[in-house]
Structures are given as structure tokens and as C-alpha cells.
From TrEMBL:
<dbReference type="Pfam" id="PF13472">
    <property type="entry name" value="Lipase_GDSL_2"/>
</dbReference>
<dbReference type="InterPro" id="IPR036514">
    <property type="entry name" value="SGNH_hydro_sf"/>
</dbReference>
<dbReference type="InterPro" id="IPR038885">
    <property type="entry name" value="PLB1"/>
</dbReference>
<feature type="domain" description="SGNH hydrolase-type esterase">
    <location>
        <begin position="49"/>
        <end position="263"/>
    </location>
</feature>
<dbReference type="InterPro" id="IPR013830">
    <property type="entry name" value="SGNH_hydro"/>
</dbReference>
<keyword id="KW-0732">Signal</keyword>
<dbReference type="GO" id="GO:0006644">
    <property type="term" value="P:phospholipid metabolic process"/>
</dbReference>
<dbReference type="GO" id="GO:0004620">
    <property type="term" value="F:phospholipase activity"/>
</dbReference>
<feature type="signal peptide">
    <location>
        <begin position="1"/>
        <end position="21"/>
    </location>
</feature>
<protein>
    <recommendedName>
        <fullName>SGNH hydrolase-type esterase domain-containing protein</fullName>
    </recommendedName>
</protein>
Length: 285
């Protein structure tokens, strides 16, 4: 999103004074960039990640559990190139991170995460939520676009109001129907999916692929419109929705969550939208 937030000096001053009151885990060091590159971005000393199991890195480390070190947002795994690691490489300073995401949440259940983020007052907040909103035994159980928009409006209003000097990055919801198409001919995936995973709308034998894509497009249209209302909000313009995963990007544990490779791809997409907004030369921040 190409909008002015405030002057560089004003935001830099606020960021310098801000301190995160939550956990202060430090991201694993990555090679420092040159002095010239380190001057390109505004300081991001603290960040928080909001969302669901995708942001928690579930199944990304080869085990059927959350693995935050492989999270696209706050992860520290070598070779991941998470948002936190890219910030360190670009600025020379590793941000303190707090991954507030929770498994299974829908957008209507984000209140606790939003409140926690506001309390911690991080310099950057990343948000990716909506995957569970299209999951269910049938399309009747998918969150309506109207309900999704209402919940997103409430959450974003709270974030933008409670964190007026923070950068809020909103990711589009990925097109889970592409996962259905990708794994339809994979016998191992089909065997796992046949046991059920609570998301028949995506992995079921008769998954309503077109309906899922259409619903997610509605979610993303709402996110785009809502984010444009706030000067400190950055949306990826549907880049994650447009992403076409490969088999390497999918975890072989459940053939539903993403692998470390998939987490890397999500981070790269997010950085493509976020980096220009953080650039001191962009005139935006």
C-alpha cells in the first residue's frame, strides 16, 4: 500500500522510545548487511506475529507440533529468511519477537491476540488469519464474507487505534484450493486426507474447490479495503493468494500445513510488500 503514515523522523522517534513488555526472545543472528543497506529501513526493534497454525510453523520442522523457529514471521531457523531475519539483515539489529499465534483460530477469535499485541506495543505486527474460516465439513460451515469483514474491521480498528505508531502488516489469505489441486494425484496425501483433518472443504474427496477460492477472494477484498483506511497498515495486495505452491512447500506430515520451504516462500512474499513500506527513502514511513 502506497500511503504516507507520518514523517520518517516522527516515527523513528516513537520507535526508538517504544519497548515491548512481552517476551524478549532474540532471533538467531544472520549475517549483517553492509552499512549502506543497514540505513535503508526504519528501526524495528520489536515485533509480534498474530494468526493461526501457519504462523506458528505447525509441522514445518518435521514433527506434528508447532515450530515457531520455522515461522515465516518471527522464525530463527537457518536458511528460513523470516521477516525477523530479513529485518536484522537489513538493519543490523535483530528484533525481539513474540509469536502470539494460536492453532485453529478463526478471525472472530483473534481478540486475545490483538489485546496482547497492543499491550506489548511492538514496532511491527504481522497478521495472517483466515485459513480456518474456510474449513469445515461443508460450505455451510465456512465463515461468510460479511462475518469475516466485520471481525476484521473490529480487529484492525483496535490494532490501528491501540498501536498508532506501529506498522501493521496484513497478509492475504492463501488460496487453499490450490492445495487441493496440487495433492489430488498424490497417493500418500490422499491416504492421509482420507483419515480426516477437519477441513473437508479443502481436503475432502468432493472438496468444493471453486467455492473455497471464491470465499477467500471475498475475505481478501475485505482486507484490502479495510487496510486502506489506516495509514499505518500494509496489505500484500493478494500476493499470497496468488502464490502457487509446489509439493516441496507442503508438509508430508498432514499434506495440509506448509513445510519449511513453504514458510520461506510466505516470508519472501510478505517481505516484497513490507520492505518498500519500511524504507526510509520511500516517503511512506
Amino acid at each position: 500500500m502506497k500511503r504516507l503514515i507520518s514523517t520518517v523522523a516522527a516515527l523513528a522517534a516513537v520507535v526508538a522510545l517504544g519497548a515491548c513488555s512481552g517476551p524478549t526472545d532474540t532471533v538467531e543472528p544472520t549475517p549483517s548487511a553492509s552499512a549502506e543497506a543497514q540505513a535503508d529501513l526504519i528501526p524495528i526493534e520489536t515485533m509480534a506475529a498474530l494468526g493461526d497454525s501457519m504462523t506458528l510453523g505447525v509441522n514445518a520442522c518435521g514433527e506434528p507440533t508447532p515450530c515457531t523457529k520455522a515461522s515465516w514471521s518471527t522464525g530463527s531457523e537457518s536458511g528460513l529468511d523470516s521477516i525477523a531475519q530479513r529485518i536484522e539483515e537489513a538493519t543490523g539489529t535483530a528484533p525481539s519477537v513474540d509469536n502470539l499465534a494460536k492453532t485453529g483460530v478463526k478471525i472472530s477469535q483473534m481478540g486475545g491476540q490483538v489485546s496482547a499485541a497492543i499491550k506489548e506495543a511492538p514496532d511491527l505486527v504481522t497478521v495472517l488469519v483466515g485459513n480456518n474460516d474456510v474449513c469445515g465439513s461443508s460450505t455451510d460451515e465456512m465463515t461468510s464474507v460479511e462475518a469475516y469483514r466485520a471481525a476484521a474491521a473490529s480487529g484492525l480498528k483496535a490494532l490501528a487505534g491501540g498501536l498508532p505508531s506501529s506498522v501493521i502488516y496484513i497478509s492475504s489469505v492463501p488460496d487453499l484450493a490450490k492445495l487441493t489441486d496440487l495433492m489430488r494425484s498424490d497417493s500418500a496425501a490422499q491416504a492421509v486426507w482420507a483419515r480426516g483433518n477437519g477441513c473437508a472443504t479443502v481436503t475432502g474427496a468432493d472438496a468444493p474447490v471453486s467455492a473455497v477460492s471464491e470465499r477467500i477472494e471475498g475475505y481478501n477484498a475485505a482486507l484490502s479495503e479495510l487496510c486502506s483506511q489506516y495509514s499505518n497498515c500494509v496489505f500484500d495486495d493478494g500476493a499470497l493468494f496468488d502464490f502457487q505452491p509446489t509439493a516441496e512447500d507442503i508438509s508430508t506430515i498432514d499434506y495440509f500445513h506448509v513445510s519449511k520451504s513453504g514458510q520461506h516462500e510466505i516470508a519472501a512474499i510478505a517481505w516484497g510488500a513490507l520492505e518498500p513500506a519500511l524504507a526510509t527513502s520511500s516517503g511512506r514511513l
